[in-house]
């Protein structure tokens, strides 16, 4: 049985393998492709809709329990390059 996680963008439950784990490195949002980076993680579908909804609702800040703003520019550019 595969673990199930909740997408912070659309709030839908999905298998862990279909979601992208996101962590913070200081105050920078980083995509954790292999889901092995240390720290608290948030899970999101790799679609523009889910990512933009999560960014708009500040879901990453809440899920990762970060105080202050997050730098999302690197994360957004990484996702745009992937397609």
UniProtKB/TrEMBL annotation:
Q: Where do the YlxR domain residues begin and end?
A: 5-69
Q: Which SUPFAM superfamilies match?
A: YlxR-like
Which stretches are transmembrane? none
Q: Which Pfam families match?
A: YlxR (PF04296)
> Which InterPro entries does its entry note?
YlxR, YlxR-like_sf, YlxR_dom
Classification via PANTHER family: BLL0784 PROTEIN, YLXR DOMAIN-CONTAINING PROTEIN
**What is this protein identified as?**
YlxR family protein
Q: Give the species.
A: Microbacterium galbum
């Amino acid at each position: 049985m595969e673990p199930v996680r909740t997408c912070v963008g659309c709030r839908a439950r999905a298998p862990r393998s279909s979601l992208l784990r996101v962590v913070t490195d200081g105050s920078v949002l980083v995509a954790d492709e292999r889901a092995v980076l240390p720290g608290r993680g948030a899970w999101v579908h790799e679609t523009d809709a889910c990512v933009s909804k999560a960014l708009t609702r500040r879901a990453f800040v809440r899920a990762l329990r970060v105080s202050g703003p997050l730098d999302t520019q690197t994360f957004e550019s990484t996702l745009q390059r992937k397609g």
